[in-house]
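Tutorial handout. Part one gives the primary structure; part two gives the three-dimensional structure as tokens.
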Amino acid sequence: MDELGAAKGLDRRAAYELATADVPLRRPAAPEEMAYCCLFLASDESSFVSGTTLVADGGGLAVELTSRMFADRT
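Part two.
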């Protein structure tokens, strides 16, 4: 967020708001939410999971976010 903020002249809070504006859940993940994904993959519950990517992005994959974050918005 610091890099995005520097590029846009924003503080960290405003950079987070910009970065999550187009995310369907409209917020960044909590550290615990990411930890639960890791815990699942390390647990027996994921024993049949193989050859895939677990996407934990609040729905961001549903929209193309990178160009939106760095695009000029007026």
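Part three, for discussion. The chain has a mean pLDDT of 88. The longest helix spans residues 31-42.
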